[in-house]
Design goal:
Distance between the termini: 27 Å
Largest sheet: 4 strands, mixed
CATH class of the domain at 127-204: Alpha Beta
CATH superfamily of the domain at 127-204: Type I PLP-dependent aspartate aminotransferase-like (Major domain)
Helix content: 40-55%
Structural class: alpha/beta
Radius of gyration: 21 Å
Strand order of the largest sheet: 3-2-1-4
Number of strands: 4
Number of helices: 8
CATH topology of the domain at 127-204: Aspartate Aminotransferase, domain 2
Strand content: 5-15%
Mean pLDDT: 91
């Protein structure tokens, strides 16, 4: 991984020229590519077709109609299912929301920026040089949220076991302006890695 922060101006300009030349090579190929990320192919979408046809009772065990607005934390059945899937002992620790994790992530960063959290000294917008750890390679839309809120992005290498936790722990210990880290623990984007148990425990610690 190139250490751009360690380069001088001459080296940075040379790197920029090299990248621009490489970009122009791709432009000349006149490629027609769909660069959307995370879009399942029709065959993948068809996998759930029969499951959708099976549903004929929309009332949950708590009496809530699943087709309408529900509980903020999600249906009890869904919370139990994902607790088992994610090996969480207590379903009360699981929240099942809509189908967009990106919306939830945006909301939490926005909340931290505008109002702060329960243990925040002040909202992030009043802090100097607020930072976020970004495992790389990672999801560009996560990075775009960081960019939108003016958060300095600190790259952390992504290993097959998850983010390089030695680096994560060192950075967090040395810099209190780091407020978070982007994580997709199961089938991370784009590599598809699943964080190891040790990585998850160290993140939780």
């Amino acid at each position: 991984m190139t250490d751009y922060l360690g380069m001088n101006k001459v080296e940075l300009n040379a790197e920029l020229d090299a990248l621009r030349a490489r970009y122009q090579e791709f432009v000349k190929m006149n490629l027609k590519l769909d660069m959307s990320r995370g879009k399942p192919c029709p065959e993948q979408l068809d996998l759930s077709k029969e499951m959708l046809r099976m549903v004929d009772n929309y009332i949950g065990e708590n009496g809530v109609d699943a087709r309408n607005y529900g509980l903020l934390a999600g249906m009890p059945e869904a919370r139990r299912f994902f607790a088992e899937l994610l090996r969480v002992d207590d379903p009360e620790q699981v929240i099942v929301c809509g189908n967009s994790s990106l919306s939830m992530m945006y909301y939490l960063v926005d909340l931290g920026w505008r109002a702060g959290f329960v243990d925040s000294v002040r909202p992030w917008r009043f802090c100097n040089n607020t930072k976020f750890l970004c495992p790389v390679p990672g999801y560009d839309r996560h990075f775009r949220i960081s960019e939108y809120f003016g958060l300095q992005m600190i790259p952390v290498p992504m290993l097959k076991t998850g983010p390089d936790m030695d680096m994560v722990e060192k950075l967090v210990k040395e810099d209190e302006s780091i407020k978070g880290i982007w994580c997709v623990p199961v089938y991370s984007n784009p590599d598809g890695y699943v964080y190891s148990d040790e990585t998850v425990r160290r993140l939780a610690g």
